[in-house]
């Protein structure tokens, strides 16, 4: 690459060369032509008709050629000078009869030939090495030719001198030009260099460039534009960066998984949610087929329109996933496929739970209803034939089944209120020990009926708690009732209350039937019972623990069940102490 400076020097040199060549050749040509014209003008003036007549007179006289030569040499305005301009007297056939320089022959020229033909030969050209004039002198039978020959020495000497002057000025001009070109290029190059460095830095990402504007010319304007451009670029890039950051933050934290594949099916982007949902660490090596299987054709996805998408289901370990797949560019080669992964496990679970719940409710209500119906029908059919004792017994069953249904409906209503946040709480500050003691008193008779040994350990100075006393007592009651229910008669039930840090607790321990380990996690599910028949027999609905858990949640409390199957159960509830 040639630098701007070299180019400028070359342009200047070429310019000077061209200029000097044109001027030089015009000058040299002009001088040459001027001399030729001068020569012929001089000849024309000299060889007037009078002068020719004089020459004709001399020609016919004795020793004509010599006389003519003398006359011509004495004619001062002919400028005969032996070294450069000579006069020749020729015969009509071109023989030299006499001459000023004693030459015996002359070269044949166009002018001479013309004079031989009887006409004056007076044409000359710059290209010719001589200037000549041939005038025929004729009278009667006498035919001579006067021939003036100038060897152009003066012209040549002058043009030679001119040439050397032009050459010298050319050399000098070139020297000045080179220096000027250097200086000029320096003025131009300095800001251009600064601009070059600036653009290089901008290209390298240093956008805070601001160059000094040193002139008000085009380069100054260019520098100003460059500064403006880098400012605009900086603000545009920072806007784009902000947008990208926003998107990547969204991408990073969105709960749905997103995975993007290029047109060859290789993974190009994914967010942490995608890895989590698919239960595998995604890498750039992964392909669409490896991640989502071969069921969906990647090519058919690529050929979808941009507004279209494909929806399908996938199972990843325990998770149920819903996939929405769509191409992100109409261009098959440059685009790819975006997959949005939606985790529907919880949704499916809750749908399942709802279905099970409805089935459970129907089942739980159907059994007592069937009983009521069959006992009522028997009573109706038997009429007065039935002994009053049996009748009473049957009616008792009907009432107890109706009570059971009422309990179920009441419990369900309580749970529904919790579900919809409509449960009204009667919040008070009350001593926890009193609530425990109340429950102890209430169940004492029931425990006695089952011959259980019921103990209570409750310090008097237990702190107060904030909450709905009635509901908290309901929870403790439910736990103690369960201990009574699920312990064979003559068992041992201990109620222990106390404080632990900023919490109060009550633990109900029994030595009853216990709960198998596999059932422990499901005890708080609605209608879940380990032994349905036993629960039903003892009047349980399977909703007690669910309600207890909901009530404790409302009070920021907790419930924990530990049990060994066949040995006994220990249930602990904790509640935060009132401030
Ligand atoms: P239920 O009305 O059936 O008692 P709960 O929700 O109160 O319903 O209890 C759920 C199930 O947990 C019971 O059916 C029973 O199988 C089991 N359970 C609760 N407490 C005890 C306990 N102290 N000993 C053994 N099993 C228990």
Automatic annotation (TrEMBL):
Protein name, per record: histidine kinase
PROSITE patterns reported in the protein's UniProt record: HAMP (PS50885), HIS_KIN (PS50109)
UniProt-annotated location(s): Membrane
Domain HAMP: 186-238
Record key words, sorted: Kinase, Membrane, Phosphoprotein, Transferase, Transmembrane, Transmembrane helix, Two-component regulatory system
Transmembrane regions listed in the UniProt entry: 162-184
InterPro entries recorded: BphY/WalK/GraS-like (IPR050351), HAMP_dom (IPR003660), HATPase_C_sf (IPR036890), HATPase_dom (IPR003594), His_kinase_dom (IPR005467), HisK_dim/P_dom (IPR003661), HisK_dim/P_sf (IPR036097), PAS-like_dom_sf (IPR035965)
PANTHER family xrefs: PHOSPHATE REGULON SENSOR PROTEIN PHOR
Catalyses which reaction(s): ATP + protein L-histidine = ADP + protein N-phospho-L-histidine
Single GO cellular component term: plasma membrane
Organism: Candidatus Avoscillospira stercoripullorum
Domain Histidine kinase residues, every copy: 360-579
Pfam family, one: HisKA
GO biological process, one term: cellular response to phosphate starvation
EC number: 2.7.13.3
Gene Ontology molecular-function annotations: phosphoprotein phosphatase activity; phosphorelay sensor kinase activity
């Amino acid at each position: 690459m040639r630098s701007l400076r070299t180019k400028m020097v070359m342009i200047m040199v070429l310019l000077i060369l061209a200029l000097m060549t044109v001027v030089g050749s015009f000058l040299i040509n002009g001088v040459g032509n001027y001399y030729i014209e001068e020569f012929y003008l001089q000849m024309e003036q000299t060889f007037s008709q009078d002068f020719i007549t004089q020459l004709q007179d001399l020609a016919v006289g004795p020793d004509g050629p010599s006389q003519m030569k003398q006359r011509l040499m004495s004619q001062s305005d002919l400028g005969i000078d032996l070294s450069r301009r000579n006069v020749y007297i020729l015969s009509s056939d071109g023989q030299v009869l006499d001459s000023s320089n004693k030459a015996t022959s002359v070269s044949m020229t166009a002018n001479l030939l013309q004079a031989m033909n009887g006409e004056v030969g007076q044409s000359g050209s710059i290209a010719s090495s001589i200037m000549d004039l041939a005038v025929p002198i004729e009278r009667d039978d006498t035919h001579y030719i006067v021939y003036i020959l100038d060897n152009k020495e003066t012209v040549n000497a002058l043009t030679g001198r001119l040439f050397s002057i032009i050459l010298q000025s050319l050399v000098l001009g070139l020297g000045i030009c080179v220096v000027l070109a250097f200086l000029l290029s320096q003025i131009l190059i300095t800001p251009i260099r600064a601009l070059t460095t600036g653009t290089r830095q901008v290209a390298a990402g240093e956008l805070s460039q601001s160059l000094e504007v040193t002139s008000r010319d085009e380069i100054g304007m260019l520098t100003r534009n460059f500064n403006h451009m880098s400012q605009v670029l900086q603000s545009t890039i920072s806007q784009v960066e902000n947008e990208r950051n926003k998107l990547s933050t969204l991408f990073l934290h969105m709960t749905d998984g997103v995975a993007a594949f290029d047109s060859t099916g290789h993974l190009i982007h994914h967010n942490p949610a995608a890895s989590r949902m698919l239960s595998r660490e995604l890498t750039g090596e992964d392909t669409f087929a490896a991640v989502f299987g071969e069921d969906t054709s990647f090519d058919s996805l690529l050929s979808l329109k941009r507004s279209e998408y494909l929806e399908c289901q996938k199972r990843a370990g325990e998770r149920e996933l819903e996939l929405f797949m769509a191409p992100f560019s109409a261009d098959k080669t440059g685009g790819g496929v975006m997959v949005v992964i939606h985790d529907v496990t919880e949704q499916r679970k809750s749908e399942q739970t709802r279905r099970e719940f409805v089935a459970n409710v129907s089942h739980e209500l159907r059994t007592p209803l069937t009983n009521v119906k069959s006992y009522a029908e028997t009573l109706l059919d038997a009429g007065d034939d039935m002994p009053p004792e049996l009748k009473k017994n049957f009616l008792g069953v009907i009432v107890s089944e109706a009570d059971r249904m009422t309990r179920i409906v009441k419990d369900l209503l309580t749970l529904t209120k919790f579900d919809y946040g409509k449960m009204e709480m009667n919040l008070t500050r009350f001593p926890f020990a009193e609530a425990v003691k109340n429950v102890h008193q209430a169940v004492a008779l029931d425990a006695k009926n089952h011959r259980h040994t019921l103990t209570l350990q409750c310090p008097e100075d237990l702190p107060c708690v904030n909450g709905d006393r009635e509901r908290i007592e309901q929870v403790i009651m439910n736990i103690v009732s369960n201990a009574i229910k699920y312990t064979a008669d003559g068992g041992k039930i201990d109620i222990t209350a106390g404080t632990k840090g900023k919490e109060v607790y009550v633990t109900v321990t029994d030595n009853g039937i216990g709960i198998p380990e596999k059932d422990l996690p499901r005890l708080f599910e609605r209608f879940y019972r380990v032994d349905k028949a036993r629960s039903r027999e003892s009047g349980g609905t399977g909703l007690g623990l669910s309600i207890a858990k909901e009530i404790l949640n409302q009070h920021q409390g907790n419930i924990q069940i530990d049990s060994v199957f066949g040995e006994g159960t220990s249930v602990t509830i904790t509640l935060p102490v009132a401030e």
